[in-house]
Predict the 3D structure of the following.
Amino acid sequence: MHKHPSALGVATTLTPAAPVTLIRPQAAARAARFFVEKFPGRSLYAVKANPSPDLLRTLWDSGISHFDVASIAEVRLVAETLPDAKLCFMHPVKAEEAIAEAYAVHGVRTFSLDTIDELEKIMRATNDATDLELCVRLRVSSEHSELSLASKFGAELGETRELLMATRQAADALGICFHVGSQAMSPQAYSDAIERVRAAIVDAAVTVDIIDVGGGFPSVYPGMEPVALENYFDAIHRGFESLPVSYSSELWCEPGRALSAEYSSIIVRVERRRGTELYINDGAYGALFDAAHIGWRFPVVLLRDEESDAAMTGFSFYGPTCDDMDHMVGPFMLPDDVATGDYIEIGMLGAYGCAMRTGFNGFTAETVVEVADEPMASLYAEPAPARRRATVIKLG
Ligand SMILES: *Cc1c(COP(=O)(O)O)cnc(C)c1O
């Protein structure tokens, strides 16, 4: 692994012809310590946001001991990388073989489910094990979130009573979990969901041992600047304290984005300029899936030794593949004199960015460089990073 003091240094000394992935372990460690110290319960890292083994080790070293995994490949990856980690298999629809291997080979005891079918599947796959922690996933609203997770999973009101009672019979510990959708922009999302949990508990009259409020904790992007995470934690703590659960019950959360967004960014090169359209060497099939498909705006900065004093202009990007869909509408704010050959850092790609990369059309990014400078934005830096504060804040 190469190490460099800064993104600018990487661009000017390596002058890379392909995109470079930058990693900032210190930023991920800071995010992990924040959750470990301030979340009023246990924080599980949701591996799908970024399964890089280096990141998994960084989070572990910073106090994250539990991992939310969703596939047998994620189970194997974390078990191999961190043999002492506790794995929670939180995908509500699993292959029976995956459950059996997770239980028998990797020691997984925690599973989520949202139907009686899945409960029966788990019991078959574990030979009616008596040491299971089973979390019933409730469907909750995604109205406060940028990315909905409301239509695919979760038991509906009306189905939860029977499901909670049957799961209580089968489980050593009974949990209730939900996911408010990713990048939840208001703590209210969690308060509302916890009210759903209350109704379900009262209706089924079961003893609940675990409340898992899922992921959805936001990061910071242009035009999406959430209130401080402490507000989310306070809302969750208040809601949890008022639930009719046993005195010894546990509170869990499963952040993916919030623990990984600041970990990575990329350096791309401009290969052509056409008006306010820049043809860059990474795109929709690389780290910019969300920028292309849901118009997500990531922060950008021009990496030049001499800072440009040209006025800021909104640009759109084309990625390197031959596909028209490889287009990121932005707008991405850059100095108006940006030209072919310039390098740009695109920030906050540690969550659902670098993890989504494909090799489509022969374009990929193999070089990874660790840098010591601050990420382009942060929810954890005190004070907010000065280097790019204006870039991030003014874009809103
Ligand atoms: C994706 C996912 C997460 C992580 O969500 P973020 O919005 O990245 O925090 C947590 N739990 C489950 C079950 C998920 O599917």
Q: What stands out?
A: The longest strand covers residues 264-274. The chain has two domains: 2-23+262-371, 26-260. The two ends are 35 Å apart (CA to CA).
